[in-house]
Amino acid sequence: MKMYITIILTLLLFASCKQEGPVDSINNGLPETIPALFASVDGNWNGIWVFDTDSLKIIDSMYTGPVGVPFFLEFSPNYTVWYSIWESSLHNYELFAVDAGTKTILRRVKTEERSMTFLKTRGLLVTYDRKIQFFNDETFSLVHKDSIGILWRLVRAPGERKLCAMYCNYNGGGFAGIIVYNLETLSIDRKLRVADSLRQRGMAPADLKISPDGRYLFLTVFNWIGGGGFGSFHAIDLTTDSVVAEYPCGKYSQMGVSPDSRYVYISDPAGYLYEMNPTGHLLRYDVHARTMELFIDWVPYNLTGGAHGSRLITDQIVLMPDNKTMFLTTLNGETPEGKNIAIMKVDLNTKQVLGVYSIPLDHRGYITEQIRRLKLGMYVMKK
């Protein structure tokens, strides 16, 4: 009997350690789920909008308070709990666990850090900025903390044995390179340079992604030169720790990596609040050939940047697992009819725009919300 119970417990433990990613709609008693886009919303209304990936209609939402913008969002293995960090009051950040159905706050704990990720197979929520902290996902008890400096865009390596992050000499700038953090020893494994130290000091970090196969790191930075500068994209082969490609790109570009690790798509947010001149381009890096191409020029589409000028300004990129569809957020984008574009759905084969979501205007005719982050997840259907 003791052996029988041990086998049952082992099987249950194995089932709870599923890989991150989309799951079947009904799988061994798990809740019924559908693919959905989760948007972090900033403005007069702060919170999360949940979009159906087919229709781009809002199917659910959660308000997070007058000052709380949930820039980071993670999900429990069965998607019934959402995890996020936001300001509960001015300059006071807390880590939250929320029931995905009722939106009830299940747990909360204060944290000095404003960014986060989730190690699902380890059951650890990781917060970071000026230091890195590990919290148990079920109790929110602090498991470990490490003062390793200012981190930007921490990403999980496949298998969750290592973390990679851009680290800086000061908040938002003074880029110093890449750290690889070992989750077995809970210490820095190694540091990688992208360029010589003089050039790195003039870089501001923009985005960091890791290929699904774990071989490559991709990063974008803005190279400040005087009052201007240029954006650049870099690819690092983690098997040799060497930079294998560098290309110019947009200003503070964001990225999306295809599920098959073949392509990296690169947007041009035009410097965000710096309001630099946009290129109106969506670039694509071929990982195998190590070449960069202009994938889409938005000018012929007659989609504009609204008040920012004539060229469309793209930001967040999300790719569907089937590698056929892309979602993009824009900054003040407009259709030829003058309709605002918050999210665009694009066919990757034909490059045609399949649909857009427009933020409703307030009673004065103004847009009072903006999508800051966009993430693909699974939404638990309400019974």
Explained architecture:
This protein is mainly β and 383 residues long. It has a domain at 286-383. The chain is 5% helix and 52% strand. The protein has helices spanning 2-16, 197-201; strands spanning 33-43, 47-52, 58-63, 73-75, 81-89, 92-99, 105-110, 115-119, 124-128, 132-136, 142-146, 150-156, 162-170, 173-182, 187-192, 203-210, 216-225, 228-237, 242-249, 255-257, 263-266, 281-286, 291-297, 314-319, 325-334, 340-347, 353-357, 369-380. A four-stranded antiparallel beta sheet has the order 3-2-1-28, with no helix packed on it. The longest helix has 15 residues, at 2-16. The protein starts with a helix and ends with a strand.
Topology, element by element:
Layout: H1 2-16, E1 33-43, E2 47-52, E3 58-63, E4 73-75, E5 81-89, E6 92-99, E7 105-110, E8 115-119, E9 124-128, E10 132-136, E11 142-146, E12 150-156, E13 162-170, E14 173-182, E15 187-192, H2 197-201, E16 203-210, E17 216-225, E18 228-237, E19 242-249, E20 255-257, E21 263-266, E22 281-286, E23 291-297, E24 314-319, E25 325-334, E26 340-347, E27 353-357, E28 369-380
Antiparallel strand pairs: 1-2, 1-28, 2-3, 4-5, 5-6, 6-7, 8-9, 9-10, 10-11, 12-13, 13-14, 14-15, 16-17, 17-18, 18-19, 20-21, 21-22, 22-23, 24-25, 25-26, 26-27
Q: Characteristics of this structure?
A:
383 residues, mainly beta, four-stranded antiparallel β-sheet, globular
E-strand count: 28
Report the sheet-strand fraction. Answer: over 45%
Helicity range: under 10%
Q: Overall 3D geometry?
A: globular
Mean pLDDT: 90
Q: What profile does the largest beta sheet have?
A: 4 strands, antiparallel
Distance between the termini: 38 Å
